[in-house]
Amino acid sequence: MLLDTASLYFRAYFGVPESVRAPDGTPVNAVRGLLDFIARLVTDHRPDALVACTDADWRPAWRVELIPSYKAHRVEEEVGGGPDVEETPDTLSPQVPVIDAVLDALGIARVGVAGYEADDVIGTLATRSPGPCDIVTGDRDLFQLVDDGRSVRVLYPRKGVGDCDLITEEAVRERYGVPADRYADFAALRGDPSDGLPGVKGIGEKTAAQLLTEFGDLDGVRAAATDPMSSLTPARRRNLLAASDYLDVAPRVVRVATDLSLELTDPTLPRVPRDPAALAELDARWGLGGSLQRVLRTLDR
User: Fold this and answer.
1) pLDDT at residue 263 is higher than 90
2) Per residue, what are the HEC states of the chain?
């Protein structure tokens, strides 16, 4: 099981009241919410291995170089320059190091790769996985990894992780009208305002699916745009040709990496904490309470 960790702790932060606090009054709603999510996921799905995949770089420079608008609307206003900082609620940012420390003390594998997003770590680990693999994320971009033949699927939370849509190849086709291995092409054509991807003018989900069904893939769609005998309307042909520069680079931005060089500690789901003393200190400092106890009981089954 591969966790899109940031996706889950953002969901936990907004789903658990900020009144959930440490003894000193510091909010720990994202920490405790994420622990509750892990307990529920392990209880419901009993994975043999669990990896918390993290954003070592939430807005990689190489993606921004290709499409400058990539996630630009999420960048905090900077004072004095420096690397881009993701706009994050003031009471969430301090909880992220606590989450990291708790996962490490529990012995849950945590992996990030410099210059890449959690999506890319997930793509690499899912591609390497020798057996069934569940990806837990609220990010539709990871639908491109779904592969029934290799039993790679996405658990897509509706609210909490106890109520997830199971995304298989059939589910991708039913939702979007394209096979999972064409989802990245579909997303490039359609665009995605949440990631700052403009897409092609006049092409939404329905049209993107129609074009890929008719012409096979993005290369086929672009070839049709240069073919005066193709069935494309003049307006659609003009819009595709006008978007040529964007379409030259969009697939590289949208497609997750599947070949990262990464170091992965033992991903086996721990039965007991790796560092009980550190975990006890974290519990006392941050008041992890029933959320931590639920994880410990779940792991000990």
Assistant:
1) no
2) CEEEHHHHHHHHHHHCCCCCECCCCCECHHHHHHHHHHHHHHHHHCCCECEEECCCCCCCHHHHHHCCCCCHHHECCCCCCCCCCECCCCCCCCHHHHHHHHHHHHCCEEECCCCCCHHHHHHHHHHHCCCCEEEECCCHHHHHHCEHHHCEEEEEECCCCCCEEEECHHHHHHHHCCCHHHHHHHHHHHCEHHHCECCCCCCCHHHHHHHHHHHCCHHHHHHHHCCCCCCCCHHHHHHHHHCHHHHHHHHHHHCCCCCCCCCCCCCECCCCCCCHHHHHHHHHHHCCHHHHHHHHHHHCC
Q: For residue 165, is it within any domain?
A: yes
- pLDDT of amino acid 84: 67
Is the pTM here over 0.90, yes or no? Answer: yes
CATH number at residue 148: 3.40.50.1010
Find the CATH number of the domain harbouring 246.
1.10.150.20
Domain holding 127, by residue range, is 2-169+256-299
> Domain count of the chain?
2
Q: Judge whether 175 lies within some domain.
A: no
